[in-house]
Specification:
CATH topology of chain A: ABC transporter involved in vitamin B12 uptake, BtuC
Largest interface: A-B, 39 and 38 residues
Number of strands of chain A: 2
Distance between the termini of chain B: 85 Å
Radius of gyration of chain A: 23 Å
Strand order of the largest sheet of chain A: 1-2
Number of helices of chain A: 11
Oligomer: heterodimer
Strand content of chain A: under 5%
Number of domains of chain B: 2
CATH architecture of the largest domain in chain B: 3-Layer(aba) Sandwich
Strand content of chain B: 15-25%
Helix content of chain A: 55-70%
Distance between the termini of chain A: 82 Å
Shape of chain A: globular
Order of helices and strands of chain B: HEHEHEHEEHEHEHEHEHEHHHEEEEE
CATH class of the largest domain in chain B: Alpha Beta
Shape of chain B: elongated
Largest sheet of chain B: 7 strands, mixed
CATH topology of the largest domain in chain B: Rossmann fold
CATH architecture of chain A: Orthogonal Bundle
Helix content of chain B: 40-55%
Number of helices of chain B: 12
Chain lengths: ~300, ~375
């Protein structure tokens, strides 16, 4: 059972299927980091993204890339509306974090119900077919979905990283994340940065749900179920640590898929909860890898003569 | 005032009031035979519930067009359950306490179970049509199913795989919830009893989207056939990943896999998939073919959950047969008499389902139709009695 072929296959497939989990975790983490919101309304964003793509491609028969672009536009509008009409209104009213959290829960359930009313509960996909052609690379089966999925994640995260480091809005996002009040004193418009952040999250979610919906069937409540993975990755990776959340999502996907080789398959679903429980209890700040020790030269502190006349 | 007008002016309003009262009484209070239908007309399951109600309405209309029951029309009182136990309880309470029906039809296992105490306490016959939880057979004296329960079709396909198909080694993949766990165990027991061996028995999480690990374990076990006890949402994905990993064995499943979308989603990968159906299909039964054509003509599509609508279409025929029998024996149409007559009649010949029998132990005997994907469409492979 533990042959090189099996291990290689699991590693490859887990790596590919972690793509949407990584994007969803990063989307959640970035809103948590910058906007300081536990954004459970991300489930609503995911629902809108999937059913937008399903409508464009599955129902209207538009080409995939056109469907993706239309979905992206719809989700950016939805994300902006969520921020402008929802979060910004609540901030101006001085709503407590608990109240904002309840608001996000209500939004996620509301849109799941709306999707149920419009599309029913029958599982749906974006493309009519779930089957992707495969080819063998050595002993490993690689499907035509895997490459684009992995590439999408790398490109998305590379663009995000460059945006945060090199662009003014990106740098402002980091500043607001570190200290929103100080950032405001320096002339940074916090509300505009919150809007930019949630738009970025919307873009990542569009890619994630397009990947997921082209490989799996989705029902109105699927997004709420997928949220747990994003939340777990953000908590375990360290609240406020975007790249920690991304790496954690990848590792969790790998562990969950390969666990069936070591433990009874009925326990596979419990693993995520076990990791989350252990992380909250023993690593409340997330699992942090220690900073590497840097080389340093130490010299003696020089002695200074006392000034004359002192 | 003229004295002759006075009695008329006093009598006239009373006469008008009397006429209005008479008109407001149920027009066929003495002429219709009433029963209840509690189904989801709103909510997430309305997609199926509304089609099933329409099928039942067609059944009632056909019976009435043919003269009803000894000249009396059948009247079906329809209420909404939303497939939700509390709403189901409200609907059935109204059917029993206000409408005073001797029998009602309902569906969705959670609702069937929730309203069972009302049926038992009030001695009103509850007919479950479409729910397949094995618990339904144990819900009390006044609860009967006219739809085969979960063990019938899975036992049939397991036995067929081991005996007729000659497969001796099977792998079972099942979703880790009540329906998957129970169904997988039924398959395992039936396949083993028929002389086969289960070489892999793997559960998966209902929220899973990747089955590589489990499928690799199945591949290593080298089965001759793979049985999938999953949900509508995950069965096509499991089969897709199976085929991608090089597992080309025949696949068996139960009624959840039997839908045209499976072929659309899997294409050539669906070839050889065998699923069960609990009602004859149009290709083999001209009455069913005409029924499906009527749907396409009047509604513009096939019904959602075709086999379930077939059972709902035929349920009024069962009720009409019992009403007729009670009339012939000059027995009042009470719940007790309905139940007794149901068990005394036992066997029914129905237009879309065919022949089936209700057992004393609250189960039904019905043929199981094994459907196989061949040449890109579902074809009937066998009928297992």
């Amino acid at each position: 059972m533990f042959s090189v072929d099996v291990i290689a296959q699991i590693l490859w497939t887990s790596f590919a299927t972690s793509s949407y989990f990584v994007l969803l975790a990063v989307a959640f983490a970035i809103v948590l980091k910058v906007n300081r919101v536990f954004n459970f309304a991300q489930a609503a964003m995911m629902t809108v993204a999937f059913y937008g793509a399903h409508t464009a491609v599955g129902i209207l028969g538009l080409p995939g890339w056109v469907g993706f672009l239309l979905t992206l536009i719809v989700l950016l509008i939805f994300s902006a509306a969520l921020e402008l009409l929802g979060f910004r209104t609540l901030r101006r009213q001085g709503a407590s974090p608990m109240f904002i959290f309840i608001f996000t829960l209500v939004v996620s359930e509301l849109f799941a119900y709306v999707a149920m009313l419009i599309y029913g509960t029958w599982p749906a996909t974006i493309f009519p077919s779930l089957f992707w052609p495969v080819r063998m690379v050595g002993p490993v089966v690689i499907s035509a979905w895997d490459g684009p999925a992995i590439a999408s994640v790398f490109v998305a995260l590379a663009v995000l990283s460059a945006f945060l480091r090199l662009s003014r809005p990106g740098q402002f996002m980091i500043a607001v994340a570190d200290n929103p009040d100080l950032a405001e004193l320096y002339g940074i418009n916090k509300d505009r940065i919150y809007l930019v952040t949630i738009l970025i999250a919307g873009g990542l979610i569009t890619i994630a749900m397009f990947l997921y919906g082209s490989r799996a069937q989705v029902q109105p409540t699927t997004s709420i179920e997928l949220m747990l993975f994003a939340v777990a990755a953000s908590v375990i990776g360290g609240i406020g640590n975007i790249w920690g959340a991304a790496l954690t999502a990848l590792v969790l996907a790998l562990l969950q898929n390969s666990s069936v080789l070591f433990i009874p398959s009925e326990w596979q679903g419990f693993l995520l909860y076990i990791f989350l429980f252990l992380a909250i209890v023993f690593f409340p700040s997330g699992i942090r890898l220690g900073r590497p020790k840097r080389l340093s030269r130490q010299t003696e502190t020089p002695e200074f003569d006392q000034p004359k006349g002192a | 005032m003229n004295r002759t007008w006075l009695p008329i002016t006093r009598a006239l309003p009373a006469a008008v009031l009397g006429i209005m009262l008479a008109a407001s009484l149920p027009a066929h209070a003495q002429e219709t035979l009433r029963f209840g239908l509690a189904m989801p007309l709103s909510g997430g399951q309305a997609l199926y519930g509304q089609d099933q109600v329409k099928a039942a309405e067609w059944g009632v209309a056909e019976i009435n067009a043919a003269g009803g029951v000894n000249g009396k029309k059948l009247e079906m009182i329809i209420l909404d359950t939303q497939a939700d136990p509390p709403a189901g309880i409200q609907a059935v309470e109204r059917l029993v306490s206000v409408e005073k029906v001797p029998v009602f039809i309902t569906a969705w296992s959670a609702v069937v179970k929730a309203v069972a105490p009302i049926a038992n306490d009030n001695r009103v016959l509850e007919l479950s049509v479409g729910a397949n939880s094995a618990d339904i057979a144990k819900l009390g004296d006044y609860v009967y199913t006219t739809y085969p329960l979960a063990d019938i079709d899975i036992t049939a396909v397991a036995h067929y795989a081991a005996t007729t198909m000659g497969k001796k080694k099977a792998a079972v993949l099942y979703v880790n919830n009540e329906s998957g766990t129970v169904g997988a165990q039924i398959f395992k027991d039936a396949f083993t009893k028929a002389g086969g061996t289960i070489v892999a028995y793997e559960a998966y999480d209902p929220k899973a989207s990747d089955w590589t690990g489990s499928l690799l374990k199945v591949r290593a076990a080298d089965p001759e056939i793979v049985h999938i006890q999953g949900l509508v949402s995950d069965t096509p994905q499991v089969i897709a990943q199976m085929r991608q990993l090089g597992l080309q064995q025949p696949v068996t499943s139960y009624a959840a896999a039997y839908n045209p979308k499976l072929i659309e989603q899997l294409g050539a990968a669906a070839e050889g998939v065998i699923a069960t159906a609990l009602a004859p299909n149009g290709a083999d039964n001209p009455t069913v073919a005409a029924y499906v054509e009527r749907w396409k003509k009047e509604v513009g599509r096939e019904p959602n959950g075709l086999p379930y609508t077939q059972y709902l279409h035929d349920a009024p025929y069962i009720i009409a047969a019992i009403f007729k029998s009670l009339e012939q024996k000059k027995l009042p149409p009470t719940g007790e008499n309905f139940r007794a007559e149901l068990l005394a009649t036992k066997t029914f010949e129905l237009p879309l389902i065919g022949k089936f029998a209700i057992n004393d132990n609250h189960t039904v005997n019905s043929p199981v139709y094994l459907m196989e994907v061949k040449g890109g469409k579902w074809t009937q492979k066998a009928i297992v009695n």
